Amino acid sequence: TYEVGDPDKNPMFLEKRVYQGSTGKVYPYPTTDKISHEKTDKEYKAIYLENKYLKVMILPEMGGRIQRAYDKTNDYDFVYYNHVIKPALVGLLGPWISGGIEFNWPQHHRPTTFQPVDYLIKHNEDGSKSLWINDIDQMYGTKGAASFTLYPDKSYIEISGQLYNRTSLPQTFLWWANPAVPANDHTQSIFPPDVHSVYDHGKRDVSRFPIATGEYYKYDYSEGVDISRYKNIKVPTSYMAERSDYDFVGSYDHQKRAGILHVADHHISPGKKQWTWGNGDFGRAWDRNLTDEDGPYVELMTGVYTDNQPDFTWLKPFEEKTFKQYFMPYKEVGEVKNASIHAMVNIEVTQENIDLCVYSTGEYDSKVVLTHKDQIIYTKEVSISPTQIFKDTVVNEGYDALDLKVSVYSGEKLLVEYQEIDQGIPELAQPAKAALPPKEIKTTEELFLNGQHIEQYRHATFLPEDYYLEGLNRDEYDIRLNNAYGVLLLRRAQFELAQTYFEKALERLTELNPNPYDSETYYNLGLSQFYQNNLDDAFASFYKATWTNEQQEMSFYYLAVIESRRHNYEEALEFVNKGLIKNAHNIKARALKAVLLRKLNKKHEAQMWLDANLSVDSFDYVSHFEKTYYNSDATIDEINELMRYDHETYLLTAIDYGEAGFYEEALKVLNQDISKKPMIHYYRSFYLRQLARSTEAVEAVEFANQCDPTYTFPNKLEDVA
Q1: What interhelical angle do 479-491 and 444-456 show, nearest 10?
Q2: If pLDDT is split at 50, 70 and 90, which confidence band does 632 have?
Q3: 487 and 413 fall within a common domain
């Protein structure tokens, strides 16, 4: 390991820095800019998942990355295995390492890619084993959890993602898994057969694929160069598929006859990307920066809810998004034509022969069927597995490749199939256009959409308020613009000013009738009042927001919170149940219900509910603490270990309790902290004041004032007193 230095004690903001096509903002995280040139041996906690085919090593102290993925059947590391931890200043916060599979959210590269995460191991009823990791992004408050699962008889790694917005406002995110693969003159990136255009970051530039024919990354490919081959790319280059109707992307070493494939539903996982430092002097210099002796690699990134960098998707308040990805080694198939999690197939058609090859991720008694215009011309029953690859050659009796389809069955189940589609001469995709200056935009609708786009894509140099305010200058009562600008002010904790814009929107929204089609403005108004502690006004606004379907989940939650503060627990429980009808996986609402059941002395129901909560989210720390109020197996020490004694996790858990007026419970959480961070004790003081324990509150403030303020960078809305 090449150790890194201490982070800078000064807060860094860097909003105007461009990083991976969007803002390089880092606050409230500290940044690190020092890396040792000397290496030392260092022990890491590693979790191994292993079955008869694969051995996988995961490092929870390094962002939960897969450090090694090894195919035991052919002695092959199907992801790039870097034998040293050798960071370079590539990451958003500084240190970043190459190799393995890195998991990036809510942006790329992930802020905590070089930091520890929560983790636990689960033994599943079907005999599989899973490692779960968990992390909450401090910049935007979104929560990401993922499980890595190996099944006893499958040659793939299953990644289950669970993303949750635990904040009151819409947030944006992307998810890019970033497997590195070893690169040499025989390495080829295997994109689906319908990928003909690839984009640069932000879709600023475009190239044909796989044969580039123009200038791309300021490099001349006019002679026609196959950029799917690593050896042909001489300069640092990214390319991302414009679109594809296939579920796979991969890489293959034609010399070793082995590679890696990623499979995920393309409807939610459209992202298919390759990045390389380039097969030239510059690239080799970066190889030396990032490894001692493991050589070059390419990154074969796979995006979920995103197809470009940046390409962010909205995650609404309390919304959960889930997905699955699969990474698997494969052998012999070469340029895969189609793949599923069960099998992958290649068919190569020449005038003389039709070559077939099938690899499977499990053991199947299968039937391979080749048809010509729906007429069977070849069939063969064969056992296939990760160690039994099917290969055969059929004489081509004048068949056109477009009329041939190969299908692989196991019983009645179709494992995989492929038929070439005539795509003619595909049109080259067009690069994206930059937003016009606000005054050059014709309509208020376009001003709203441009401002929202700049927010959504976290633009580094354009400001959304320039577009919103230009629109409001033209029409001060525009509902969308008032809402958008008001929410922007809410994010900046300008609650009173935000309220004026929501009230302005309501003037027009209720001009003709008091019951608008969409009550988003009432919900936003309720938030601005809630954060000013105007609870009666907020209660009325949230209640009105429940009149339309879209705002019910969030508004019922805050109605329950306010009733909890009033100690009206029966009424609060009724509200929270109404919200859970809209979203049964609202983790904050589920935790609040558990507390309310305890307050109402519904012990048995509460304990059953807590077990259900932790099956939905194993890292719901309010539910973990709630279990300590009963005669259960939960212990404070085990919870602290799971939380890694992390002061930010204690703060977030306490805030969830305190938001609903459960101040004693919030104090119990904060009292577990051993870090002596000032914010812990400022929050303790606040909760003690709410309990009329003023002497202790003063003592807590005095203690906080004596704490070391290093890396104390407040940024939560609740931090605003």
Answers
A1: 30
A2: low
A3: no
Percent of the chain with pLDDT over 90: 99
Task: Show the tokens assigned to 537.
Answer: 């006004």
In this structure, the answer to whether residues 474 and 327 fall within a common structural domain is no
Do 94 and 33 touch, CB atoms closer than 8 A? Answer: yes
CA–CA gap between residue 609 and residue 594 (Å, rounded): 6
pLDDT of residue 721: 67
Q: For residue 330, what are the β-bridge partners?
A: 259
Signed CA dihedral, 360, 362, 363, 365: sign only: negative
Q: How far is CA 472 from CA 435, 488, 519, 524, 711, in A?
A: 18, 14, 20, 18, 39
- How much is the pLDDT for 195? 98
Q: What is the pLDDT of residues 211-223, one digit of tens each?
A: 999 999 999 999 9
Q: What is the pLDDT of residue 342?
A: 98
Domain-embedded: residue 623? no
Nearest-CA neighbor of 262 among 180, 318, 379? 180
Q: What is the CATH number of the domain that holds 541?
A: 1.25.40.10
Provide the 3-class DSSP secondary structure of residue 486: helix
In the structure, how many helices (H) and strands (E) does the chain have? 17, 39
% of the chain at pLDDT higher than 70: 99
CA distances, 635 to each of 147, 611, 625 (Å):
24, 15, 9
Backbone angles phi, psi at 642, to 5 degrees: -65, -35
Q: Domain check: are 197 and 62 in the same one?
A: yes
Does position 635 have pLDDT exceeding 70, yes or no?
yes
Q: Which residues pair with 380 in a beta bridge?
A: 368
Domain count, the chain: 3
* Paired tokens of 111: 């802020």
Query: Tokens for 651?
Result: 């703060």
As to burial, measured by CB atoms within 10 angstroms (0-12 exposed, 13-18 middle, 19+ buried), residue 499 is buried
Q: How confident is the model at residue 513 (pLDDT cuts 50, 70, 90)?
A: very high
Place of tokens 């919900």: 523
pTM value is 0.96
The CATH number of the domain where 400 resides is what?
2.60.40.10
Nearest to 100 by CA among 181, 174, 4, 189: 181
- Site of tokens 């993602």: 161
How many residues belong to the chain?
721
